[in-house]
Amino acid sequence: MPETNYNMDMAFFVDMQRCIGCHACEMACAECETNGQESMIHVNYVDRAVSVQTTVQVCMHCENPACANVCPADAIHQDDFGVVHSANTPRCIGCSNCVLACPFGVPKKMEEAELMMKCNMCYDRTSAGKKPMCATVCPSQALYYGTHEEIARMRPNSTPVNSFKFGNQEVKTKVYVMMPKGAKQLIVD
Amino acid sequence: MYRLFQTLNRRAFLKAFTLTVLVVVLVWLGSRKLQNFDPALIAYLTGTVFAVFGTSYRYSVWIQRPPTRLYWQRSMRFLFSRHFFPYLWHSIKLFFRNILFQRFIAFRSRRRWFGHFLLATGCLLAFAVTIPLTFGWINFELRPGDDQTYHAMLFGFQAGTFRLGSPLAFIIFHCLVWCSILVTVGAVIMMNRRFTNGGLIATQTFEDDLLPLVLLIAISVTGVGISYDYTFLEGKTYQFMAVTHAITVILFLLWLPFGKFFHIYQRFAQLGANLYKVEGARRGMAICPHTKKAFASQTHINDLKQVTKELGFDFDKPDGSSHLDLSPEGKRSALAAAHFRVRKESGKFFG
Amino acid sequence: MAKLPTSVDRLIAAFGPHKAYPPQSGFYGAHEPDELVKTHCCYCGMQCGIQLKVKENKVVGFEPWMDFPYNEGRLCPKGVERYLQNNHPDRLMAPIQRVEGEGFEHISWEQAMGKTVSEIRRIQQTYGKDAFAMLSGVSLTNEKSYMMGKFARVALKTANLDYNGRLCMVSAGAGNKKAFGLDRSSNSWADLAHAEVIIVAGANISETFPTLTHYIWRARDQGAKLIVVDPRVIPLARTADLHLDVKPGGDSALFGAMLKILVDNDWLDHEFIADHTVGFQETIEAVKDYDLDWAEVHTGVAKEKIWEAASLWGKAKTSFLLHARGIEHHSKGVDNVLSCINLVLATGRIGKPYCGYGTITGQGNGQGGREHGHKCDQLPGNRDITNPAHRQYIADVWRINESEMPGKGLTAYEQIDAIHRGEIKGLISICFNPLVSLPNNGYVREAFEKLEFYVCIDSFLSETARYADIVMAGSLHEEEEGTVTTAEGRVVKINAAVTPPGNARRDGDIIMELAARLGEADKFSFASSEAIFNELRLASKGGTADYFGITYEKVESQMGIFWPCPSLEHPGTPRLWEDRKFSTPDGKAHFNPVRFKPPTEVTDEDFPVVLTTGRVVSQYLSGTSTRRIGKLVDQYPEPLLEIHPKLASRYGIKTRDLVRVKTRRGEAEFPAQVVETIREDTVFIPYHWGGKHAANQLTIGNLDPISKIPEFKVCACQLIPTGEVASAALTETAYQSDL
């Protein structure tokens, strides 16, 4: 229905070690029109008592999204571009299954609105050929949105990885994490 | 056709079929062997019966999905537990608050709530009037000798009387007009959002988001049109109004099981989800090993471990614990910590 | 004037700070704005390009400006939220006047101007011209900065004009002038992205100049080594190749010791030193005893790390050294700067591709604002007010007699002393909130209470404006056209997005009317900002900061021009000193011998802990604007006392415990944040808050003898646990600066 101009050559790359914890992405996320002043990106200290390390988490847009699978209301939809959308508002019953099942800890439950909301990669912008808000403003470019060629040129010693291991589960995602050259998978735990 | 049979869900079909037969029987009985049935409404009746079949089929398929089934079973078990009365009371309160008044929508946006409330109230009231009429469960009679008193009949029994031309008669006979006004105003508010809110414009689709509103407005406008026609136009446009109204209503009924309106049935699951949360909290909370804070009920975590397994995910770790034991913040930190380790071991954080 | 006109609570209720949030689904018109205005962020010296969305003369949102070359759309949280300062409920919409016991009342511009001018006349006739002082600020555009300087000298005729740049980068400016004869970062940031070794000293880039991080990370992507000098593990230091956790006040010892290592290992550019510099021998003579053992004692940094840093720097082919307030806010700030420059000159890595040096200016127009004459000793074009030729040139531009031009006045903090001494009786201020930003602010507050008349031009009622007799409702950054000069020396264009709301007026118009009423209308009859800029171009012509060849048209079409730009054909100068001709009288770069001196206040038995101050990413300077933006306040709602667990355990302090911090000047209570990311002997408090939450109640007002910058970054304190846990109520109201 809306004119879509989604560019499949563009990809999202995350490198948490570049993150300086400034929260610019979080502020900018709230300006994305699809989520009405709610911020969908997560920035948190890993353990402030010992380090200033922060982590930044956008929706990874899994190829087989656990959130959509565990949704009892069929409220989470993955489109043809592989974007996993925020909960369909009429359907979502606010049960939090997706919040707790997502291996990346992404979906957010808006308690009073009885609604799950999550990052949809700034669909209003990406579907119009623009970059997502967070990756546009990120001053450290811990979040980068561009082509594979661009990232390869800019970060010659890193490899984009989109395979993760959580326990016994392998998860493949649309979003990449930048890893040392040659890495194939990020084993989380 | 072959594919349809291949993918036919036998259980759902059986349930839906049974329910449909039951409705037909109830129509037969409720209308006193069709004595009170208005033959002019036959098209509406057919549509409604189809809607019953379609909706119940889809509902049944829906609750067979592992997460839904689990929620369904759990909430039934929690409701019919030793806490039955408090939970029943809790659910009734929630029914009024969340289903009839849709208060949760107000936290998404006030205007949106207002639009939705008008629209939903109009629809529900209209259902409450038209379904019994279509089924022949309600009819109005004039008795010989008194052409001024209307007798309202429910299942063939007298349920009340009122004078022709009285304010009550005006309210009752124009009930659908009131509904139409509510629906129209609500739908226009909702439609306006869809044309001005950038986020909605980007994500909406015609069939899921605009068509339902168009359909509701069409039903309402033609419905009011019938009334307007016989009040002011002496039936000059009756044919057109009646036919378009019937077509839009039947389209609505046929589409009910498949499209956006199915969410009306799904909403009830919100009551179950709520009960699940209350009972879960009572049974004990799960503490995140990373943040050391409670983040969800342990029941929920345990159930999710089972459901994810049924769905083909295995988040178990070699040490016997599970990735799902972590809170969302814990999971994000675990990922960041793992990434930090890999980067550090490589000797370079950058490049 | 004396104390506050009424209770602080009543002032807060009427004028804020209140936290502003956008409505749930954004402001009306954000989806389809009338126009997108290309301008720059109002915070910090990076001056990131940004587009403001305007609907019906209101700023309703922003859209990243992808084409602006410095930041290509990147922004920090302050930049993202900056649009919320417009359209703010606390905004002053008309001039207000102090009413004893009541607070403030609205008055007409006629009344405000009339009263102000009569008070200026009264005070100057009674006590002399210099008894009426002016304080300005470098968040103002070049045009306004220029006009403030002209206004003070031509209309007010006072020598006592200074600005809040005095708290910013004056140590760097003084050091740069001594060494290079010119005060500007030597390179554009483009060179930074390709340097092989980068030293960042006392610059919390990731929080105070977040968008500059990208350039450092880009350099690291290509293998650059990053050395961070800071008492805290700032986000930039977390992954740095080397973090030198220097003890506050130990900077010149560190750089002196590094210089000695360069000399001992012959990691020197002899040719450059011989041909293009003077003073090398005296300089290395000064550090000849600074061996590693000595250095370890005086810097608090492990000697291996010092050696490693010197060897990385010494062996590099290209390098960039950056510093900021961390080494500049000291009673020996200029020395610290010079000791950094000595490292750069010794290795000859300046004036070449990918080789650079610079201070990172903190304020929005910290660079341009410090060049065009609202500094007590300066005239436009970075000219010297004590130099007869400079005076004559500017007097001609201003069409006044050179003899009428006042001489050098008092610096900002010296003005406070002069108020205490009774020499200054009246004050006009703009864009400066000394009650939050000056050290030892109990003393500063007493000074404001002694003034006979104080008029303030501001958009919000800042903590200082609460003490004013009259507050004139001025303009915000997005309400007046002009130019600013970024920290890399790039002159960029600020475009007006909206007009001032209600009865508020443009700062420029206010100053022009005041000047006219003071009898100087003919010298302040600018028809536009561009007209002011054109006079500034002429005034700066031939000065070290030469803007003559820069025009609005050039700035806009070329996305900024680097000064010096002496002629219309000149393309601007992104990289200085490529010709090796320095701006010093002898054309050489000057080494300056630096001997280590301890800070004014060293720890002792009574005050055993080092206190240092700084900033957080979500706030800007004294917070007049950023403490009014909801999400920025919520991100870091109150100043926390960062303390190492070992030090904390000595006092039994845990995270969130309320700790009283006491110095010789005052005491205040802060919730503790126990973290391993700070030196064990040092505590840190950010300074953006006022009233009882002000870190500057504790800091010391001792000044650098040359730059007159106060020693914000080091003093001695004692810690007294109150035994209480900090309350949520305290957190929630800290942004209001209650007393």
From TrEMBL, chain A:
Keywords: 4Fe-4S, Electron transport, Iron, Iron-sulfur, Metal-binding, Repeat, Transport
Matches recorded under Pfam families: Fer4_11 (PF13247)
Presence of the UniProt keyword Iron-sulfur in the record: yes
Gene3D superfamilies tied to this protein: 3.30.70.20
Domain 4Fe-4S ferredoxin-type: 10-38, 48-81, 83-112
Keyword Ion transport: no
SUPFAM superfamilies, sorted: 4Fe-4S ferredoxins (SSF54862)
Coiled-coil positions: none
GO MF terms held by the record: 4 iron, 4 sulfur cluster binding; metal ion binding
Protein name as it appears in the record: Fe-S-cluster-containing dehydrogenase component
Source organism of the structure: Parapedobacter indicus
Automatic annotation (TrEMBL), chain B:
TM spans (from-to): 12-29, 41-59, 117-138, 168-189, 210-228, 240-258
Organism this protein belongs to: Parapedobacter indicus
Keyword terms of this UniProt record: Membrane, Transmembrane, Transmembrane helix
Keyword Mitochondrion: no
Name of this chain's protein: Uncharacterized protein
InterPro entries: NarG-like_sf
From TrEMBL, chain C:
Every 4Fe-4S Mo/W bis-MGD-type domain range: 34-90
Pfam families: Molybdop_Fe4S4 (PF04879), Molybdopterin (PF00384), Molydop_binding (PF01568)
CDD domains: MopB_CT_Fdh-Nap-like (cd00508)
GO MF term set: 4 iron, 4 sulfur cluster binding; metal ion binding; molybdopterin cofactor binding; NADH dehydrogenase activity
Gene Ontology CC terms, in alphabetical order: membrane
Keywords attached to this entry: 4Fe-4S, Iron, Iron-sulfur, Metal-binding
Parts forming coiled coils: none
The name this protein goes by in its record: Assimilatory nitrate reductase catalytic subunit
Native source organism of the sequence: Parapedobacter indicus
